[in-house]
Model the fold of this input.
Amino acid sequence: MPGAMNRPVGRRAVVLAATAGVVGTALARPAHAAGFGYTDDGSDYVVDTGAQLVFKVSKSTGDLTSLVYRGTEYQGYGGQNSHIESGLGASTVSIRQSGSTILISVRHGTLKHYYAARSGENNVYLWTNKADASVSATRYIVRVKKGAFLNDEPDSYTYAPTTIEASDVFRKSDGQTHSKHYSRRRVMDYDHIGWSAGGVGLWMVRSNHEKASGGPFYRSLLRHQSADGGGLYEILYYGQNQTEAQRFGLQGPYVIAFTDGGAPSSALFPGTLTTPWADSLGIAGYVPASGRGRVAGVGISGRNTAYPYTVGLANAAAQYWGPARASDGFFSVSGVLPGTYTLTVFKGELAVYSTSVSVSAGGTTTLNTIAIPSSNDPSNAGAIWRIGDWNGTPAGFKNADLMTYAHPSDARAASWTGNVVVGSGETAAFPCYLWKDVNSGILVYFKLTAAQAAAAHTLRIGVTTAYANGRPQVTVNDTWTSAIPAPPTQPDTRSLTNGSYRGNNHTFTYSVPASAWRADTSQYNVLRIDVVSGSGASGFLSAGTAIDAIDLLA
Done:
């Protein structure tokens, strides 16, 4: 990450790099490997890392026009280069060498982009500084030649399938669905993405995403593969199902890394990578380790130990996160730009605590044990029955896992319809998503004791996102119907069909009067949940919502 902590590379780090199967990611190297340097061929700057990688950058556009590793060209499909967005066009491009580093600088309007090579390494380090919205820049894409790394993962569509939604979701003849959106991973779940074949690995190692948006649980496209070639992405800002405003400033480094087929060295991963060699390169917006701080907490009490906890920091300028230790909740988030942040503690993906913290350059903000109030976790409320649990995700509901890497119409999906009986595996039977056109009107059957039926109760429905303002209206025993709730703030793009349930967690509450319940305790009460909205299209693009938990409070 930019200005990651400056600490010397020791023998252990070198051993780790070697055992990771990395070619050319030597952390202990000569001042200049044989052949290290650059030339100008008239149209491109040609950089030889002195290892096994030679790459070219256009002098007129800043596009990456060639990636030759071990004598084989990997860059390019469809006559296109690798570049910011779909190519910046005319740009000012310059190059200079500083000892063991070569830096290529690209300027296009207010946007500045950088490529760096280190002597003896098979890596290309990249930074992108998007200063404002005047220049479109939401991604960097490495375009890889067809046939280099064929596969049939969920984010691949190699076998000429049928388009079923927009121009980016496909169905194969076996009924399985594929899309570049189906990465399965949240940002916090991966350090690198790429392919390996024939003793060569090509990877995109992500940055720390401090200038991206959406937080640790955000999902976006990372990679695609088709008959035409493949693409590896570093997402600078992704508008699909986005929960935050765009942040501006320097993002990086992110790294294009070649290996002998193994994973890239963990020394390149966000949170591990150190770049003291970049401190004096003059990269716009770069903040070295000495200009950053750390937030640490001695522990978190009041946790439900069945769940992982994550601590996030966010303000309008930057975002960071880190895990809380399972044993006691200790956490440490380093490399943080100075400023005041909202610190949020997440149970699973559900925010259960927040406070404000300030970070100073070179300092550590130490927090005493954070005590999560019992009332902050909705799981602590006494319930007559509960479907699912309050963790900010649809985990455990029908089709929930599949929906992070498949379309709802996928042949592997269980039926989206079907009613539910409390006490008979209700969570696994209840669909993770509800749509106005698909399964609105689902019925939940449950019994009450005489004492329970004699009292009013609060019904809660937690959701994680919604499409086209879809929200639940409930009816009990066909005798009482709730008002139509106001739609909460949610992203206004596709979500449920492109692999993401992540939006803004929201809880709908309904005060059900005692007169709505059946007096005969031998009879089932029937709860009907309808999805209501005046927006949306049809089918799986009709108004819908993703379920976190449903319960009837005692």
